[in-house]
């Protein structure tokens, strides 16, 4: 239970801090209006409360920083949390100065100091504002509230990158993520009977699953099956949490948009990841139609934006991606595929069609720069490897100190450098954090040459993200309109795209994302001209 409780230590301690400082101010101010022997007693009591409040402040600030770096949050709540933190640090610093001042007054046996009392009243006013902002962070934005809905129900909008163009178009409200029971990002519909769940979702091959279950080692005559739908995300697959004899598992049914050949490849990727320890362990797979997979339910928490500032976590993510890239691929049923080149293929195909308008006129110039950079980064042969192809934050599970990668639906063979560049861009890593991630990946400090190539790849990704985005837009615009929209757009980064999509449970409107995609093109041209 401790991991669930720890973020709540901050509101526990902060109430002592606020109460002690408030009482101190009240007592010290009251001493101004008392003329008898009670005057000195009130003043001394006020000082004692002030000193105790200062001691509690140190604990409160430490607990606050822990909560700041651990609680689940989205971008609006992150802004509210940061605003509260900044006010708190200023207020705490002022009270520390006042505490030291009061000790000097007490030791000098000075009865009262009007200037000191005035500063104390001002500091208490700031304390009230800080407390109000903290309450806003909890009650308006739901920070630290474990039952808060939709904190992470936006999984694949965050992953709507070159890796998720299909999922942006072929999404269902059905389950996508199996997260943790311990305050993570699990979204369960109420537990239901197995028969009732079968009736509610008749489109899935329940009979095949129950037949496989009965013949497996997991079957027990005495065990009842508890089942619940794991809800959230933008996948056409559906995930269910199943409890057998007190043990939890995840049942994944493949969406109807997958062909039999695709289902074979997907199940082979899941099986490969589980056997190598990169993904959850798989207990059995439909070997006829490849329509379902039963996997372990992994305890832990998926990453959030705050985790992208944690060097230890970034090193761990780099380390597991290195292991993925170094491992031998599956012996059969794998694909020579990389979602990172989807945008390039789309652009090349679309521009081959006569009179087809797909974006602003500047795309032609941008493509020439992309070709130049591509030639530079591919001067030497590249050893392709197995890629996860979807390493966004909601697919990275922190299990103790271990990292598990979820959702191997898009895995395939490709250039591992693209996956590394994607992580750096999508996570919004600065140079220091990127070095931490790459140190975990290479198991050493990256060389200047590796950093230079990565910089070029990150520049390429700006245009590649824009291509993928343009491929999903349905608007039929003429060239003049496209160029007008482009002129109005401001430069954007991949992190901008990540943030705006994380704030939406559903796919954002075309006019919203179009501005981002056009801004990516502008930023690409800025960066490419520096190369």
Walk me through the structure.
By secondary structure, the protein is of the alpha+beta class. The chain folds into three domains: 2-140; 155-301, 2-Layer Sandwich (Phosphorylase Kinase, domain 1); 302-528, Aminoglycoside phosphotransferase (APH), C-terminal lobe (Aminoglycoside 3'-phosphotransferase, Chain: A, domain 2, Alpha-Beta Complex), CATH 3.90.1200. The chain is 54% helix and 8% strand. The protein is built from 19 helices and ten strands. The chain has helices at 2-5, 9-30, 38-70, 75-107, 114-140, 155-158, 165-169, 194-200, 206-214, 260-276, 311-326, 342-352, 363-377, 416-426, 431-442, 448-472, 479-488, 494-502, 510-528; strands at 225-230, 238-244, 247-253, 282-285, 292-296, 301-302, 385-387, 396-399, 402-405, 412-414. The strands form three sheets. A five-stranded antiparallel β-sheet has the order 1-2-3-5-4, sandwiched between helices. It has a three-stranded antiparallel β-sheet with strand order 6-8-9, covered by helices on one side. A two-stranded antiparallel ribbon has the order 7-10. Strand 4 (282-285) and strand 5 form a beta hairpin. The longest helix has 33 residues, at 38-70. The chain is globular, with a radius of gyration of 28 Å. The two termini are 52 Å apart. Mean pLDDT is 83; it is low at 1-6 and 147-191.
């Amino acid at each position: 239970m401790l991991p669930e409780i720890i973020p709540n230590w901050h509101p526990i301690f902060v109430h002592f801090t606020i109460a002690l400082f408030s009482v101190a101010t009240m007592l010290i101010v009251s001493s101004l209006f008392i003329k008898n022997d009670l005057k000195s007693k009130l003043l001394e009591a006020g000082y004692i409360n002030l000193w105790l409040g200062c001691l509690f402040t140190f604990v409160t600030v430490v607990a606050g920083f822990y909560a700041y770096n651990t609680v689940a949050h989205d971008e609006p709540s992150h802004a509210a949390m940061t605003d509260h933190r900044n006010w708190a640090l200023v207020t705490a610093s002022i009270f520390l100065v006042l505490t030291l001042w009061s000790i000097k007054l007490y030791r000098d046996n000075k009865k009262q100091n009007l200037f000191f009392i005035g500063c104390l009243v001002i500091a208490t006013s700031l304390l009230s504002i800080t407390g109000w902002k903290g309450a806003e962070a909890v009650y308006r934005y739901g920070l630290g509230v474990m039952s808060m809905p939709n904190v992470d129900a936006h999984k694949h909008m965050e992953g709507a990158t070159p890796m998720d163009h299909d999922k942006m178009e072929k999404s269902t409200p059905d389950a996508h993520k199996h997260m943790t029971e311990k305050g993570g990002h699990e979204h369960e519909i109420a537990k239901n009977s197995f028969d009732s769940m079968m009736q509610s979702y008749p489109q899935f091959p329940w009979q095949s699953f129950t037949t496989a279950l009965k013949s497996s080692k997991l079957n027990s005559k005495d065990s009842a099956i508890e089942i619940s739908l794991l809800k959230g995300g933008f996948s056409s697959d559906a995930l269910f949490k199943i409890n057998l004899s007190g043990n939890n598992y995840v049942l994944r049914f493949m969406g109807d948009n997958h062909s039999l050949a695709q289902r074979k490849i997907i199940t082979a990727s899941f099986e490969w990841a589980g056997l190598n320890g990169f993904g959850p362990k798989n207990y059995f797979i439909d070997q006829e139609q490849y329509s379902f997979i039963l996997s372990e339910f992994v305890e832990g928490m998926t990453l959030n934006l705050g985790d992208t500032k944690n060097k230890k976590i970034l090193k761990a993510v780099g380390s597991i991606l290195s292991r993925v890239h170094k491992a031998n691929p599956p012996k059969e049923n794998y694909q020579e595929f990389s979602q990172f080149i989807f945008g390039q293929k789309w652009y090349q195909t679309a521009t081959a069609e006569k009179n087809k308008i797909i974006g602003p006129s500047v795309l032609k110039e941008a493509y020439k720069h992309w070709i130049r950079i591509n030639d530079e980064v591919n001067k030497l042969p590249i050893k392709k490897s197995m890629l996860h192809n979807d390493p966004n934050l909601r697919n990275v599970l922190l299990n103790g100190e271990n990292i598990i990668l979820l959702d191997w639906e898009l895995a395939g063979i490709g250039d591992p450098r693209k996956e590394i560049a994607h992580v750096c861009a999508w996570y919004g890593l600065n140079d220091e954090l990127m070095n931490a991630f790459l140190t975990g990946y290479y198991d050493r400090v990256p060389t200047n040459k590796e950093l230079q190539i990565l910089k070029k790849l990150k520049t390429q990704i700006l245009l590649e993200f824009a291509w993928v985005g343009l491929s999903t837009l349905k608007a039929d615009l003429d060239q003049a309109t496209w160029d007008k929209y482009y002129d109005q757009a401001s430069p954007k980064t991949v992190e901008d795209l990540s943030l705006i999509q994380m704030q939406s449970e559903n796919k954002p409107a075309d006019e919203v994302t179009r501005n981002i995609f056009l801004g990516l093109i502008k930023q690409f041209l800025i960066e490419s001209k520096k190369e």
